[in-house]
Amino acid sequence: MSAVDRQGGRLSRRRAIGSLAAVGACAAALPPLLAACDNNTPSKPSPTLGRPEASGAWPDRTRLPIPAYQKVGKIDRTVEGSDPIEWPQEIAAPKGAPNILLVMTDDVGFGASEVFGGPIPTPTYARLAQNGLRYNRFHTTALCSPTRAALLTGRNHHVASTGIIMELSTPFPGYHSIMSKSVGSVGEILAGNGYGTAWFGKNHNVPDWLTTPAGPFTLWPSGLGFDYSYCFLGADAHQFRPAIYENNLPVDPYLGREDTYHFDADMADKAIGWMRTQKAVNPDKPFFAYYTPGTAHAPHHAPPEWIAKFKGKFDHGWDRQREMTYEKQKEMGVIPPDAVLNPTPADYKRWDDLSPDMKRVCARQMECYAAALSHCDFQIGRVVDAIDELGELDNTLIIYIQGDNGSSAEDPTGNGLTSEIVVIANDIPDREDFMIENIDQFGGMWFQNHYSHGWAHAMNSPYQWDKKIASHLGGTRTSMVVSWPTRIKDNGGLRPQFTHVTDIVPTILEAAGLPMPASIDGVEQVPLNGASLLPAFDKADAPEHHRTQYFEVIANQGIYHDGWMANTAPKRLPWVGSGPSTKDPFNDYEWQLYNLTEDFTQSKNVADDNPDKLEELRKLFLDEAGRNQVLPLDDRYIERVRPENRPQHNAGRNVYTYFDGVTRITEGMAPNMKNTSYSITGTVTVPPGGGEGIIMTQGGWFGGNALYLLKGKPVYAYAASHYPEHKFKVEAPNALAPGKHDVRVDFAWDGGDPGSGGMATLFVDNAQVAQGRIDKTVPVRVSADETFDIGEDSGTPVNRDYDVPFRFTGELHKVVVELKPA
Q1: Domains contained in the chain, number
Q2: Is the separation of the CB atoms in 504 and 187 below 8 Å?
Q3: Is there a single domain that holds both residue 568 and residue 479?
Q4: 57 plus 120 within the same structural domain
Q5: pTM (global) more than 0.90
Q6: Alpha helices in 432-503 (DSSP H)
Q7: How do residues 754-813 score in pLDDT, each as one tens digit?
Q8: Residue 164 needs a FRET pair 20 to 30 A away by CA distance; which of 31, 40, 246, 734 works?
Q9: Which of 526, 551, 640, 522 is nearest to 176 (CA)?
Q10: Both 262 and 140 in a single domain?
């Protein structure tokens, strides 16, 4: 990678058909050069998949973009004196190249879906498995953004500079989260070779300081080779009120259908519409749809009728569920007969430790998770049905990955959560009485619920540990199904070869008959890390091609090589976000050794019996770490958010001026009103008859603030969380008269510990009109998905006084936010 490329040098991303510049150059050249253009005769595209055209003949698919080709003869001063000429020939995919649907769900462990012995029905996954292949040794990186970077690029996550999630990136080359141009995406490669490309669902590969509508968009789908996108950019999304971007523009798709909207259904609608348009306009052009729902990451939101389907299905609890899943997995043959069920670590809460009421609450949490995943699978089924209706199913390669990592055990108490951002980020504990009283709110609009770590561990049966623990299979091993009726004949077959998320891009390229390009937009490409799965499509016992793979997330280290796995024992439980860090995680962590050839579930540590093998693999890990930008090893997690570790784009800026219509400003780029004093001033004109609506808001129901007019009265509302005792409001007694006014709130923070309270004072035209205490404020993070908006609110409201978008009905001239010392 060049130094310029590493520092984020920007090169234009030209479209799939290439540039006509080369054509124009030939056509305008002097007569001696015309003959050279005339001799540049194209070769016929290869009809055989997996055998790209020879280098040097048009099209040269090893360097993208591929310019259009035009054979030019004699050009005279007149049309009559010139040779007849054909239109430029634009690049097309190789003949017979399949359509591709790449699906990946979120936070779904190996033991969740019925297809691999779990309790959750996923009929679409089952249907594709029956008409394709199941993979029971498929591996991810153990965390969201890193897996997605590896899936998109075919490179190891640190090579793609994504060794950690976007929100916790650090400046080191393997961790800064700004994917280099030298690791071009599968979208760029396929678009550059004549595919139509689209992205639906979760992104989480754009650094949080680059996720505003102001761009830059180089790491958005449009900058990664996707012609169309309908996605959300962050870690999670409220499924009933998501912050969606259609291409690069923010949209609020739930407006007008608030009572029935769910993003998974909307996303399927968009994918179906896009595919139908592709085939209606150009039936011979293959499509690539990258389809990544936010389900089943928290919040576990599902339509109420789907939740009702699972009523009482999990009353037996997570400990029994783990045993039931293990027994079913053996019966189905997705794990070997001698596979061992790993014991649950002592730190995990046991089902029998819960009170009867909390058993009801935790059972409801699992009902919501199951409903969300099953509903998501149903929507994926609609997309598959639409492909079938188009007559394209036989020649569509469908890769359906069930989980970007193991299920998430990021619940600190074992009781589950009513809001991940409130409890984990802002350290506001849930109250059992609140959870019991509001049990019916789980899965719905007003909770961001997440289940107990006991349920997560059950969903990762039969393995040890969970999401984030890259050293163990509970974090990395999920399941996968591949269907391609034209090519795969071993319907229902099981493939036991070691496979990894980096294998997907090589598989797609070989299936499409395309080479990995040596350069894209003039940038030389880093070699792929994965290996194609096609050799095993025909042979269940095909040799393993992915023989070595390192793992690392948050200094949880592992190395697989030829059936052996050496790995560290985790220092932190999956739900522990911060704590003492280790100076030398490689040497200070305990190392274990497993013979996975004989021990499918990584259950018997044989390090003491094989010290030489352990040292051999530890050395191999360091070699791989050095080659793949894994170093330095860093076991900090939430601590990485500290200012010294993050870009400070607004450092030294205390005054922010906004105008009406400025929306979707993410927290990293918005005024930081946490743990400080500030003022917010809106200059408005109230129309005759009065006006109301949002002047400024940030966040929403689970944390945020808003200055608005309600029936003409100025109001400042604050939510430290969704709990009733954390909702505050200061309201003026009188409505504003028609005309121009300055509406201001001054917040004087008490100082002291983060999250302390303060006094809010409302002013109209510099005259005080109301004052009130805000006893608690947001200490760390306002929201994971809701934003800073002027003149309207998107997502959820701060309180129930209004509903979104609550656009300002008068004239909003400007809003000024001034940050002040505490």
Answers
A1: 4
A2: no
A3: no
A4: no
A5: yes
A6: 432-437, 453-459, 473-476
A7: 999 999 999 999 999 999 999 999 999 999 999 999 999 999 999 999 999 999 999 999
A8: 246
A9: 640
A10: yes
